[in-house]
Amino acid sequence: MGSCRLYTCFAGKSRMTEAGPLREVKEMFNKYAEGGTHMTAEQLRLFLVEVQGHVGTSMAEAQQIMEQVLQRRHHLSKFARRSLTLDDFQHYLFSTDLNPPILNQVLQDMRAPLSHYFIFTGHNSYLTGNQLSSDCSDVPIIKALKRGVRAIELDLWPNSTKDNVNVLHGRTLTPPVEVIKCLRSIKENAFSASPYPVIITLEDHLTPDLQAKVAQMITQTFGEMLFYPESECLKEFPSPEELKYRIIISTKPPKEYLETKST
After folding, report:
1. How far is CA 72 from CA 17, 49, 88, 93, in A?
2. How far apart are CA 186 and CA 167, in angstroms?
3. Which of the residues 74, 91, 116, 123 is marked catalytic?
4. 69-81 as b/e: b if 16+ CB within 10 A
5. Which of 3, 64, 91, 95 is the most buried (most CB within 10 A)?
6. Which domains does the chain have, with CATH numbers?
7. Closest to 179 in 3D by CA, of 251, 91, 233
């Protein structure tokens, strides 16, 4: 959230696929290479200015980037070919040293509805390792927030005595962590990397009394940081600018409850 940079748009897909370059990369390459098979330094410069937001990029800087990519991928000297193939272009986009992610720079207008933006999202944010047997902890959540992740997922399950709530990957061997510990760590670290809102997605497997208990924990933990919509049915979301330093809760009734209602 907060960046129009192409690298950031692909952050959630952070892998080179064996099937070849991503569709979005192909589209961008075709646009700036004007349908050709190679991208020139001038075409790369235009891409850097218009998409990446590097307004003052010179031809010399674009040529230098091109030379670095070609030297790294093909061991070509600066006197050899000076154009990028589609594969070279994708390599550049996903190179964290040649095209690092934006940290605190905001290049977009952040006053559009929240749904208009890419959001850096975590999945099973509490797991320290694999999804079957690794520990559940607040440590991966803290690390994610410090990296700028804006959406944290918590899977909520009753504890063994059914009187409290744990976070764990259900029906696996993952040792749990108490939900209150996760909530407190989110509060302490939510805005360490960005002032824009943090969304907590709750995968709910709780009974109504435990749902009420979690609701109380959330209210007491976050207080005025919580975002409350003005009505049950919003016509559109507020903007990231309006939601700075706010916590948004996203949840739905548990599948267990829905299955019971339908029988």
Report:
1. 19, 23, 10, 14
2. 14
3. 123
4. bbeeeeeeeeeee
5. 3
6. 6-93 (1.10.238), 114-262 (3.20.20.190)
7. 251
**112 CB neighbour count, 10 Å cutoff:** 14
Residue 6: the pLDDT is 44
Q: What pLDDT, on the 0 to 100 scale, is given for residue 97?
A: 85
Structure tokens at 207: 């009974």
How deeply is 14 buried, as exposed, middle or buried, from its count of CB atoms within 10 A (0-12, 13-18, 19+)? exposed
Beta carbons of 32 and 92 less than 8 angstroms apart: no
Tell me the one-letter amino acid at 97.
D
Q: Reading across the β-sheet that carries 177-178, which strands appear in turn?
A: 177-178, 165-167, 151-158, 198-204, 247-251
169 catalytic residue (yes or no):
yes
Backbone φ/ψ region at 164: left (φ over 0), alpha (ψ -120 to 50), beta: beta
Q: Spot the catalytic one: 75, 116, 169, 205.
A: 169
Cα dihedral 155, 158, 160, 166, rounded to 10, equals: 40
The model's pLDDT over 137-183, given as tens digits with 9 standing for 90+, comes to 999 999 999 989 999 999 999 999 999 999 999 889 999 999 999 99
Give the pLDDT confidence score for residue 203 in this predicted structure: 94
Residues of the chain with confidence (pLDDT) below 70 = 1-19, 77-80, 101-105, 256-263
Q: Which two tokens stand for residue 95?
A: 């190179």
